[in-house]
Amino acid sequence: MRELLGSGGALVYKRVSMEHHPSAVAVRPVESKGDRDAAFWIRQRVFQDEQKVPPELEFDADDETAMHFVAVIDGEVIGTGRLMQYEGYAKVGRMAVLRDRRRRGVGRALLEAMIAEAARRGVTHLVLHAQVQAIGFYQRCGFSVTSDEFDEAGIPHRRMERNQK
Predict the structure, then answer these.
(1) What CATH number has the domain bearing residue 13?
(2) What is the DSSP letter of 20?
């Protein structure tokens, strides 16, 4: 079960897990230094520690202007992503979920919250750079591959896009 909640102007996306764990995944924009620190810590764990991305490539100037999101279960930040708006499109990036919380709908909840925020801003064209091993996930979320494979931070990627009404 999913619902989009509005509270005080902030969008919160809630996904109720029907699996073994009864807790809900809540996704919200980063609104505090604590949230931002947690989001960056998750990115460090996933991209630097697991995937060996150099820190100078993981953290960039876009972090200052992007809208960051966190996924939370039972008060614990377990995932993150960012949304950057450009002329005519928005770019989803830096999606990361802690290893032991993957394959439970957290990534989908994060992505759907960012898609909803883009729509709220009137953006209908979304872009992302998908790691090749994650292409199926993004395709199930309505994205299509639009490029040949390219290297980003030593990891094979492909550009994907989605148009929404």
Answers:
(1) 3.40.630.30
(2) S
